[in-house]
Amino acid sequence: MAIIQDVETLIREDLAARPDGVLEAIAEARNVPLQRVLDCLGAQAARVPGDLFEAIWSDLTGWGDITFVIHTSDGVFECKGSVPPGTVGRGYFNIHGESPIGGHLRMDRCRAIYFVDRPFFGKRSCSVQFVNEGGGVMFKIFVGCNEDRSLKEDQLARFEALRAVCPAA
Q1: Which residue from 123, 121, 124, 129 is spatially nearest to 163, judged by alpha carbons?
Q2: pLDDT tens digit string along 114-165?
Q3: Which domains does the chain have, with CATH numbers?
Q4: What gap in Å lies between CA 118 and CA 19, rounded to an integer?
Q5: Whole-angstrom Cα distance, residue 1 to residue 5?
């Protein structure tokens, strides 16, 4: 008789087999929202409440150029630039400023924010990932990289400091 494993065990096995692989590929293979995979990362992913959205966003505006990523099953959109300030109005968090990053976000749908620090294709990668009420990642903000793909030290320090002061969810 075959032993049926729970999905978290399977996800952890996938992570062990490819510790620096694409998390969305695991979520898709296991037919779960990306949040389930993030929750299996252990110490590599610190979860904080989504109601810290504005405070975290405000801190991110001072980081300089970052990489803003939206990853869906249809593709990956990346934009490099500074995080612009935002204001709440008409049901959206409206971001505007002198940056290629702009638009209108449904801040009220953010249920959790993850500080993810893990290898990605052989290099250290640090990101802040905003998760919606369905467990999907709304968008990710990555610590910027230098020419040699090493992380920008000033942004890494800001990432670590922000992660340290945010209460765990």
Answers
A1: 129
A2: 999 999 888 999 999 999 999 999 999 999 999 988 999 999 999 999 999 9
A3: 43-165 (3.40.1570.10)
A4: 8
A5: 13
Instruction: With residue 110 as reference, give the H or E element that holds it.
Output: strand 110-120
pTM of the entire structure?
0.93
Write the single-letter amino acid at 24. Answer: E
d(CA 142, CA 64) in angstroms, rounded, equals: 11
DSSP 106: -
Q: Which helix (H) or strand (E) holds 86?
A: strand 86-89
Structure tokens of 168?
């765990």
What amino acid is encoded at 64 in this protein? G
More confident residue, 98 or 17: 17
- Residue 90: phi and psi, rounded to 5, are 55, 35
- What share of residues in the chain are helix, strand, coil (percent, to 5)? 35, 35, 30
Per-residue pLDDT at 1 exceeds 60: no
CA 160/CA 169 separation, integer angstroms: 17
Average confidence score pLDDT of the chain: 93
> How would residue 37 be classed by pLDDT, with cut points 50, 70 and 90?
very high
Using CA atoms, how far apart are residues 102 and 111, in angstroms rounded to an integer?
Answer: 21
Distance CA 10, CA 13 (A): 5
